[in-house]
Each structure stands twice: as structure tokens, then as C-alpha cells.
Amino acid sequence: MSSPSSVEVTEPPRRFVSGYVDGVRPNHHMNDSKTKFVNPWPSFRSPKFFPLLFFILKTNFWPPRVPKNIKSLIPKQTPTWGAEPGNEGSAKATWLGHACYLVELPTPPGAARGVRIIFDPVFLHRCSPFQWLGPARYTDPPCAIAEVPAVDAIVLSHNHYDHTDIPTLRSLLTKSSSSPHVFVALNNATYLSNALRTPLSRFHELDWWEERLLRVPLPTNTDGPAVNAEVRLSCTPSQHISARSAFDRFHALWGAWVVEDLHSHKNVYFAGDTAYRTVHDGEDEDKVPVCPAFAEVGERFGGVDIALLPIGAYSPRAVLSAVHSSPGDAVRIFKDVKAKKALAMHWGTWILTAEPVLEPPALLRKECEKAALGPDEFLVPALGETVLF
């Protein structure tokens, strides 16, 4: 089998307005140095003090109970990555826990595989600055990080510890079989480059609506030259927050991502961690403002083949609706981005909030029925399961 050479990353001609226009700062930038950001919509409102205080006390002193047999209640399988014969023409998405998916695009003629992108990989036991303190996994990853196949791109939605994990990233970046590039939103690259002791040239920062073109030389099953594939990667808005400590809140941008395969024309929407609307106690959630970013994605990309959407970490609603999606919100996002199919994520790994640990998929089924979605339109994969699309 031939070996691939380095991925080339370029900035294509702009399709969408982004950044400064006629000297006017974008409304999600809080300063001109690109070091402070904000959710610029009425759909984002901070939680009120007493609900926030009660949430902190409850999750620290009375967290939801994890059933002793939880690992048998959440299906798990050893990943096959969809490598079975006959799947070459399909795109593949494998859930690796929490918000991590490995996506492989269709295999071009003559190549041994398609372009591989991994989103928000976190394989550590605790999503915390410390491995002796903080939320601990109640389910295990479906494989070891060393068993993850070579990837061409690592895409991160934001810098929270359950989405950006330095040891996991180091393992992926130092694999001898690949040299992936890392794609992040603004003001994340320098921190990662320093923490990983990896050249800054391997990291690419994008603002909302900016894009990069990836030229990926794929290995072949012969000794012939690599097969070149092209993928366009777009950073799109999402409603969330960022912080790695108590002192850098909102200092780095967050975002969702769209991946487009320019050969097969398959595309993928990765929502990362996002909210849809803020709902305070006593409010009718169907009457509060919703984040317009998802409908913009649906219109600008003409829909997506598959959407990777968060369904967990939503309770209490009055505190977390500003930054996390409930299953009902996820169904609304599914419709707004005009997805043909959706896969659930952001549940079943750590206790981060107050809802029962098995509630998200059960609520999702009810919300899909209310929205008249078919049984195969919004799936909850098993850990390690690969879904073809």
C-alpha cells in the first residue's frame, strides 16, 4: 500500500460574508484583537442567580444516580469503521462517545480509503484539568485511542474539557501513519500548539463562515501514486461559551462545522456543543427567540446529508438551555439545517448536569414521534457503531 503525503490546506475564494466588512467589527466579536467573543442573538440569555446556584449545589452534592449495570444499558460494540467490503461508496460515521465522531467520506476510485475527520476526540477518564478530580466516565470508549485509524483532520468545536483533550490530541498527532491538521475557531490555535508542542502551521483558526480547502493525498492498495481528494471545511455559528479556566471565559471562539466532499458531494454538519434557545422558568419555550444560525446553515448549504447533534446535558432547563440542546431542541435543529439524517451525541459518558443519565435517548424518541420523523431519520447509535450515509 502506498503512503500518503502531507495534507495541503488553503483558503478558497469566499462564498459567505465573514470577518470585518468595510471596517465594521462582526457582531460576535467583543474587541478588535479577536480575543473576546459573544453570542450575538436574543436567543442567548445568561441564567438567573438562584437557579444557577441551585444547579451547582445539586450537581455537586446530589448528582443523578448511575445504574450499577449502566454499561449493559448503553449498547456498545467494537468499531469496524464501516470497512466491510461493499461500503466503499458510502460515507461512514462512528460514535466514539460523548461528542466524538470519526467520519470517513466515500472512497475515491483507486484509493484505499476515504478522507477521515475526527470531531471533538476525548478519550481520557475525566473531563477535567485534573485526572484525580472532576467528572469520571461511567461508560468506556469503545476502543483505545491507539486503535483509532489514521485521520487527516481533527476538528474541534470549542475548548471545554469534554471536547478538547490534550493527551488524546497528542496521541492522534503523533501517529506514524498520518499527519493530521487541526481546525479550530478563533483564538484556540496558539494555546493548542504550545500545549501539544506542535508547530503552529498544523493548526488552522477560522472565524464563523470562513472556509478552508483540504487537498488530501490518500493511500492506495498498490505502489502507485496517492489519490488526491478535496474537502471543503466551513466554520459556522453556534450558541455556546468557552473557557479552560475561571479567567478566560469567552476568550476563545466556539463553532459548528460543515464538511463537504468535493468528489462525492456528500456533506456533514457537526453541531459541536450548542443551544437552540434560552428558556427561563415560567416561560413558554415555543415563544422565546431561537438561534438563527441553524436555519442559515440549512439555506446556505442547501441541506446536509447527515447532522451530528447533541441531545444531553440540558437539565435544569432554566440554567442550561442557553448553552445546551434538549432532545426537542435537537429535533428543531435537525429541521433547521435541513438534514436527511441525524445521529445523536453529547450524552452517555459523564455526569455533567441533572437529568437522569438514560433520559436523553428516551426523550428523543418522543420528540421524533411528535415531529413525525421516521424511525431511521434521527438515530442513537451504539458506542462504536458505524452508520452509513
Automatic annotation (TrEMBL):
Pfam families for this protein: Lactamase_B_2
Domain Metallo-beta-lactamase: 116-347
SUPFAM superfamilies noted in UniProt: Metallo-hydrolase/oxidoreductase
GO terms, molecular function: N-acylphosphatidylethanolamine-specific phospholipase D activity; zinc ion binding
Residues bound to an N-acyl-1,2-diacyl-sn-glycero-3-phosphoethanolamine: 161, 324
Any Gene Ontology biological process: N-acylethanolamine metabolic process
InterPro entries tied to this protein: Metallo-B-lactamas, NAPE-PLD, RibonucZ/Hydroxyglut_hydro
Domain of life: Eukaryota
PANTHER family according to UniProt: N-ACYL-PHOSPHATIDYLETHANOLAMINE-HYDROLYZING PHOSPHOLIPASE D
Protein name: N-acyl-phosphatidylethanolamine-hydrolyzing phospholipase D
Organism the protein comes from: Russula ochroleuca
